[in-house]
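in:
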């Protein structure tokens, strides 16, 4: 019990940890609003207010986060030219997303002209989608390489502790990358709802489930080991 509490404290001390918690609030309240909108209008109104407040607070808390893309490219540009290009495209998309998200937030709270909100939302979502596609491509390639490496170790018949440790690390990395792909795919669906509104992506259930998949996959990845 104490170990779980300690991990929760560490998790919530991270910016990403707080973001995933508030994202959970945001999309749970969206699903609650959809579920009780016709039967309990008062509860639906409160759920909608919670959803909006959570969304705006996440945007405020992410202020300056577009700079993390520069830092990621500076610290780990990638082992090969292929991965360097993928890193540039994915982080560039994410930087556009977070940068224009500042203006979207300011327009929604009334600091900037409210008419800018739709345009800023489109640009931010477009950059977000662009980045997510390349993040997913990178993770899928690395998952495939990990599978090949694991098969080589198994076929070699090496049963040493070192080989077992390598396989354990490969499988652990695979799980984390699968969680990243799930989160990015879910967020891509949410972004597409802003770029090209359509009945599927914009449905409250689709957005709610996608938001929770993203939040909980991120929760898993950021939870202290």
């Amino acid at each position: 019990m104490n170990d779980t509490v300690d991990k929760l404290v560490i998790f919530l001390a991270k910016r990403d940890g707080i973001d995933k918690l508030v994202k959970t609030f945001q999309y749970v309240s969206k699903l609650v609003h959809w579920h009780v909108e016709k039967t309990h209008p008062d509860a639906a109104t409160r759920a909608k207010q919670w959803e909006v407040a959570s969304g705006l607070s996440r945007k405020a808390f992410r202020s300056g986060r577009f700079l993390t893309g520069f830092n990621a490219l500076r610290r780990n540009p990638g082992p090969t030219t292929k991965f360097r290009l993928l890193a540039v495209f994915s982080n560039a998309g994410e930087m556009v997303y977070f940068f224009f998200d500042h203006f979207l937030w300011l327009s929604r709270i009334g600091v900037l002209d409210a008419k800018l909100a739709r345009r800023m939302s489109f640009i931010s979502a477009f950059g977000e989608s662009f980045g997510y596609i390349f993040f997913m491509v990178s993770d899928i390639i690395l998952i495939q390489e990990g599978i090949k490496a694991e098969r080589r170790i198994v076929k070699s018949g090496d049963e040493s502790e070192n080989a077992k440790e390598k396989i354990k690390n490969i499988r652990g990395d695979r799980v984390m990358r699968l969680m990243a792909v799930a989160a990015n795919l879910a967020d891509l669906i949410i972004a597409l709802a802003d770029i090209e509104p359509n009945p599927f992506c914009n449905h409250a259930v689709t957005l709610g489930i996608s938001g929770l998949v993203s939040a909980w996959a991120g929760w898993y990845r950021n939870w202290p080991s």
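note: Residues 2-222 form one domain.
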